[in-house]
Design a protein that fits this description.
This protein is an alpha+beta fold and 128 residues long. It has a four-stranded antiparallel beta sheet, covered by helices on one side. The longest helix has 25 residues. The radius of gyration is 25 Å and the shape is elongated. The chain starts with 5 loop residues before the first helix and ends with a helix.
Amino acid sequence: MDNINPIGELMQTTMDNVRNILKVDTVVGDPIYTPDGITLVPISRISLGFGGGGIELNQKSGGGNRPFGGGNATGVKIDPIGFLVIKDGTIRMINVTPPASNTVDRLIDMVPQVMDRVDEFIARQKED
């Protein structure tokens, strides 16, 4: 019996290909620099689905290779969700997706604005 497992090889090849697609650069894109000093950083959301399987069939003759049948499927969806806008040390998120549909999503959307307000408050406190 061979030590090579066709199912394992199939899964490993697929995962290697997925790993090549899903890099940090896919989620956080390359910065775009504008002439007026604004930096835009594209942000995306990635959804991934993966499945596979196979079977090694018994072979009654004493041959070394056993028949194998298998397959797998991978689906990758990349959705642009917005841009980080960086200007004069201030960072804002501009969403390109529909508004948040539940409370948790709304809270996450508000985090950059809250952080900006906290920074402004701290700066005013230092001035006083």
